[in-house]
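All the exercises in this workshop are built on plain-text protein records. There is nothing in a record beyond a sequence line and a structure line. A learned vocabulary of local backbone shapes supplies the integers on the structure line. The question running through the whole workshop is how a given chain folds. Here is such a record, shown just as it appears in the course material:

***
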Amino acid sequence: MSVRSVSRSAKGANMKGQAHHAFARNGVAYAYGRIDGKTYRVSAGLEATKQNLAYVAREWRTIIEDKLTPKKSKGDTTVEAFGWRSLKAGEATRSQSTRDDYAAGFRRDIIPFFGARQIGDITALELKEWQNSMIKDDGAGTGRAKTARKIFRGIMNDAMLAGIVDKNPFALVKAPKSNAKEKRPLSLNEVRAMLKATSGWFHEFLALAFFTGARTGEILALKWEYVNFASQKIHIAKTQTKGRYGKVKTVSSDRVIDMLPPVEAALRRQYLNTGAKGEFVFESARKDAFADANSLHPIWTETLKRCEIDYRELYATRHTFASIMLSRGEDLLWTSKMLGHKNAAITLEYYAKYIPQDKVQRAEFLNELANDADKSGVCTQFTQKLHTANNVGAA
């Protein structure tokens, strides 16, 4: 972070809130003081809590001198060079599709802004301005900005592990707020209309999508070896994304789900098409798996138009499953397991509004306790006395 010397005339205006060589500005603790005849103010890189301000006031000289002392060279620590090193180090914990997304995001959204800079020189204010510029100037949207932030924050964490920076400046920068798009599931009548308007493999695909809640990539990656008609179970273990066949999104996404009657019927029909001659349940024209959800976009869009249903993304099939099941009173835990959520709290976060809130009699087993008390006559006697008391002097 930068060090600024402050003239004596400006000191009074700039040091508002100062106390014993420490002051707060925009939620950040700063150290200030005179060294060798010059007055400096330096961001300590800490939140401006009471404890941190006390620490800064006590260690103000060390904090300032540390900023004045040139850092020893630790090799090539530009953002670009160290960023690629960090991404390489994290490959073992990420799927191939995530690796590709991180590499693309780093190349597109981080290198053009910070690539040639020394990673230890990046300030929290610069990161805040970078986030805002992505949304306002580039029109990237909060989703892309949050992904880029996640990538860069991980790189900064690795820089801390490598001893290049003392603190992660992202700790002082709030993540951009999400402008979450409203989920637009289809109604059960719209589902029926779409199934009625389709035939062949796409009809069977829609049956699985609407009545398993599986992600599109999970259905496209489904192989017959994971389908068990005897137990009426389906093992969701793989996904197909950007032409790559690999592990599912998360640990909880690897799951065994129930084969509901419409799904079983669809799979038995589809088996006649691909079961005997191929490994994937759904095959492209080239007799291999579809590359990804984009491969189905034309036929999906055409079906929506034919059924006079407003456009929504193919992922709406997953929302449709959740909304239909919960609105019809199906068990929350079962629905969550079918979706592959880590726990039911996640399911509630996204779909609570679809759970019926009917007025029902709660804790009926306690009614007999009230009846037993009433039989003693105590409640009746008390009520009569209260009624008499409240009507004293009445005409």
